[in-house]
Amino acid sequence: PRLNARSCRTSLSSTSGKDNLCGDVYLRQHMDEEGFVSVPFMSTTFNKVREITADIPNANLQYIIETIQSSSILEVKGRQS
């Protein structure tokens, strides 16, 4: 699970990074006014995240939230349960 969490965190970080955001109009269209996207959106749209979490028994949105919370560069906004 730790390896999967690290891979998931790396994927979320690179997808959310400035280099990717400059060219990803679709992702920017799904951001709120503060630059956040919903966890359900990430879980179904980010291919690598979907692949990684598919291999984890009982992986759900909470797993993605916990993965984001363990990052030093990503953050969760709003309701976290």
UniProtKB/TrEMBL annotation:
Annotated transmembrane regions: none
GO molecular function, one term: RNA binding
Record keywords, A-Z: RNA-binding
Keyword Hydrolase among UniProt keywords: no
Residues forming coiled coils: none
Domain named HTH La-type RNA-binding: residues: 1-81
Protein name, as recorded: HTH La-type RNA-binding domain-containing protein
Species: Aegilops tauschii subsp. strangulata (Goatgrass)
